[in-house]
Amino acid sequence: MARRAIVVGASVAGLLAAVAVSDAVDEVTVLERDVLPRGPAPRKGLPQARHGHILLTSGLNAIEALLPDLGLRQRVLAAGGREISLTSGAVMLGPEGWFRRWRHDSHPLLTCSRDLLDAVLREAVLDRPRIRLRRAEAVSLLGSAERVMGVRITDADGAEEDLRADLVVDASGRGSRALQWLDALGITGIREEVVDSGVVYASRLYRMPEGAEEFPLILVQPDPLDTTPGRAAALIPIEGGRWLASLSGTRGAEPTSDPAEFVRFALGLRHPLVGRLLSGAEPLSDAALSRSTRNVRRHFESAAVWPEGLVVLGDAAAAFNPVYGQGMSVAALGAQELRRELAATDVAAPGVARRIQRAAAKAVDAAWSLSSSQDRWFPGVLGDSPTCADRVLTRYVRRMTKVATSSYRVSVAMCNVTTLQENSSRLLRPSLLLATLNGPVLPPLAGPPLTAAERAILHGLDRTGGAVGGTGADTDGRIPSSG
After folding, report:
1. CA–CA dist 399, 419 (Å, integer)
2. Cα dist from 100 to 88, 325, 407, 445, 483, whole Å
């Protein structure tokens, strides 16, 4: 008997889910209501593509495992994207000061436009023989509280049709109607968590100046424990010799789409580095704005009743504040769990859907802990207040972050967690506890750790008349990996 699966949504989560399930069924139908572009181009249903996206190490590894013949890294690099080491190629101001750039490369990040990444994945996934794309919108689930048997769709001409399947994967993103669909089947009481700091994003493309092809990734983060709203910036090198500048502010400090205010906002951050770079750079686009940034988690994995034949992955299950760059990687890790479970049992076997949902929730746990625990502290946040345990853990992590600015070993341990390669419980290992209690091993940096060549680029662009302080590093901006 032929096995069929339906995946709702053709974004990163949906494409990877289609690959994960394709080895276990005879046919996968991917439903997408948008007309998908050929090549890297914007599409209506993905407005967040205009903002900065970074593929974390865990996400890159998961995609390479799901699509070993794709060569995602090589394709993105060939198209002009960058691979940047988090420990040596990023200039980052965290809540406890500037992080050092170590000589040892680790935790590679893939930077490119979201349009490029989606195009590479679409080409690789939709060309597979068992996977077909259909332009249609899923409007409800077929079946009962015991088993989902497919979806009812509305096609591009407005006609309704019932599609049957042994497994339905909802990967339709933040706008998922999974809760309403389940409610219609009689499944209610699924817990939903929301932590909303009111973050607004404004992003703009700039031409990268000549000679800046290897310029580092710049990340200026807010201090969540400050009493003022948080402001942040990321200056991300992408294909086409461009910088993608993404600015963000929590409730009370939101950026606007006014181009005249863009650089002024960047200059008002905890450090004006990004603003100084942009003050002399050539803008290539207007500023794009987004307000769809709240942390939302739907605990499908702990539902009292869960139907056979349904799995919810990606942003449909948990969506995060984009500032933490976790969404694509969590989607990839969830797809890995989907493949792992289906490799061990039949797609229609009793209990398999619940097992997949629970396995995928483990990747969500790590990302949710990082994003929600930070955003809970900003003024005006909507959601649960920090608990006593949150306060104790936050004090410990803050001290560890301060140590990480001067210790390579502690910095790597934290990078393992922030890139979702290890669970945050690993930060409680005795050796890290001792290092944290002992405190920083080097004095704090007085300014961003830029090389002489990078400082020259900065000074060539800076139209503000500002000066950047000393680097606190050696002549090339990096220090040995021995802390």
Report:
1. 19
2. 8, 21, 8, 8, 10
The answer to whether the beta carbons of residues 229 and 249 sit under 8 Å apart is yes
Residue 466, domain member (yes or no)? yes
Alpha helices of 345-429 — where are they, by DSSP H? 352-375, 388-404, 408-418
CA contacts within 13 A on the Cβ side of 217: 28
Cα separation, 186 vs 275, in Å, equals: 53
* 123 shares a domain with 168: yes
Examine residue 75 and state whether it is found in any structural domain, yes or no: no
The answer to whether residues 128 and 180 belong to one domain is: yes
The three-class DSSP label of residue 187 is coil
| Of 176, 187, 190, nearest in space to 144 by CA | 187
Angstrom distance (rounded) from CA 471 to CA 100:
9
Domain total in the chain = 2
**Alpha-carbon Rg for the chain in angstroms:** 23
What is the C-alpha separation between 7 and 27, in angstroms, rounded?
11
* C-alpha 366: how far from chain center: 13
| Overall pTM > 0.90 | yes
Contact assessment for residue 108 and residue 83, using Cβ atoms and an 8 Å cutoff:
yes
Given a cut of 90, whether residue 221 has pLDDT beyond it is: yes
Kindly state the helix (H) or strand (E) to which residue 234 belongs, with its residue range.
strand 231-238
For residue 142, CA distances in Å to 149, 163, 381, 427 come to 5, 8, 38, 45
Per-residue pLDDT at 471 exceeds 70: no
Taking alpha carbons only, the member of 1, 22, 7 closest to residue 312 is 7
* Rounded Cα distance, 103 and 87, in Å: 8
Structure tokens at 22: 């394709």
Helix (H, G, I), strand (E, B) or coil at 432: helix
Q: Going along 20-89, which residue ranges are E strands?
A: 27-32, 54-55, 82-85
Q: Decide if 62 is inside a domain.
A: no
Per-residue pLDDT tens for 452-468? Answer: 999 999 999 999 986 55
Average pLDDT over residues 243-265: 94
Cα distance between residue 363 and residue 424, in whole Å: 11
